[in-house]
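Annotated sample (chain length 172).
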Amino acid sequence: MLVRTGRARMWLAAGVIAIAAAAAAWAIWPRSAAAPQARQYLDVSACLLTGPAGIAPGTPAAPVWAAMESASFATHVMVTYLPDTGPADVGPMLNTLIGRQCGVIIATADASADVAAAGKANPQQHFLLVAAPGAATAAGTANTVVVSQADAAGRINRMIHALAANAPLPGS
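Output written by the structure step:
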C-alpha cells in the first residue's frame, strides 16, 4: 500500500508541475499586437499652405505643421497641408483650400499678399497668416489674423481647439 501511495503522490506532483508549466507558458506566450485602428476625425479641418519646400525641417512651415499636428492629436480635427509650387500658384492654391471648406487656412509669410486678398474676397473663411520674424505683412481683416512666428503655436492651438468645440457632432 505504501508503494501505491508514494506513486500516487509522485503522479499528483507531476500533474501539478505540468499544469503550472502550462499556465506559465500561456502567460508568457507572445501575443500579436492589436490591429491598428484608423483615427476618427471630426467633420472639420485646418489646412496649411506652405512654400515650395513644404514642411521639411528648417522651413518656416515646419514649426507651424508641428503645432497643427499637436492640436489635431488633442482635438481630432483633421489637418492637411498643400505646398505651393511658386508665387504664381499661391492664389489658386488658396482657392483650392477654400473649396475644401477648411475651418481655418493657415499660411506662412510667403503668401501674405495673397492671403490678405483672399480674406477680403472670402469673408466667411478664416485665415491665419504666420509672419516671418521682422517681416512687414499686410494688416489683417476681420477674418484674417496675422501672428508672429513666436506666437504661432499658441494661436494655432487655440484656433484648432475652437474648431473642435464648434464642429458638428459625428453623424449629424
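Annotation: The first strand starts at residue 45 and ends at 50.
Annotation: Strands lie at 45-50, 78-83, 104-108, 127-131, 144-148.
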